[in-house]
C-alpha cells in the first residue's frame, strides 16, 4: 500500500494489466485491523474471586474508507439510543452503599448488570435499524449502514463477505471462555465480553480476532489478570445470602 508508482511499476513489470488490476484490488481491500483491550470490574478496584469481569474489545478496521469512520462517529454522537451512557462505577457504588442487607445488595447489583446488558443489546439493535434504513435510502455503503464488505475471491462461485469473530481463550487450558461475532460493519466497533473471575491466582488469557475470509488477517492479543481472594467479610456476607436463599427455596 505504501509503494510509490515507480516502485510499483518496477515490481509489476512482468505482469499483464489484468493481473496488476487484480493485485491492486486485493491490496486496497485486504483486511487490516488494530485491536485494543480494556478489562475492569464494575463496582470494585481489584478483581476478586466470583466478580463479573467486563472485557471490552475494540476493533479498528483500518482498511475501511474514511467515510465509514466519520459517519459512524456521527451516529454514536447524536442518536438518542446510542448516546445513552452506562452507569459509572461511582454511580453503582453510591446506589449499593445505601443498601444494608447483603442479599438485597447482591440482587440490586445483578439488576444493574442486567440493565447494562439490555442497553448494550438495544444499541446493537439500533445500529442494525440504521443499517436497514440507510440501505433503503441508497446510503448503505456508509458507516453504521454499511453492508458486509465483499472480499476478493474471484474463484469462489458466490459473493463472499467479510465477517469477524472475537474469541476469549484461557491460554493454559486452551479452553474457550467466551465468543462473539461483530454485528455491525463500522470502521470502529467494540464488543463487551462478560465472564466470572475464577479462583485466586494469575491467569493468562488470549483474545483472538479472526477473519472469515483472509489468511493472515487474524490478530492475537495475550493478557494477564491477577485474581485476588475475596475479603473475608464479603465472603461471609455472600455465604449468608446464599444460605438465606436456600432456606427460602426450601420453604417454598
From TrEMBL:
Chain segments annotated as coiled-coil in the UniProt record: 85-119
GO biological process, one term: post-translational protein targeting to endoplasmic reticulum membrane
Keywords: Chaperone, Coiled coil, Endoplasmic reticulum, Membrane, Transmembrane, Transmembrane helix
Predominant localisation class: endoplasmic reticulum
Cellular location(s): Endoplasmic reticulum; Membrane
Signal peptide span: none
Transmembrane regions listed in the UniProt entry: none
Domain of life: Eukaryota
Topology within the bilayer: Multi-pass membrane protein
Pfam families in the cross-refs: Sec63
GO MF annotations, alphabetized: protein transmembrane transporter activity; RNA binding
Domain SEC63 per the UniProt entry, residue ranges: 154-223
GO cellular component: Sec62/Sec63 complex
Record protein name field: SEC63 domain-containing protein
Organism, scientific name: Diacronema lutheri
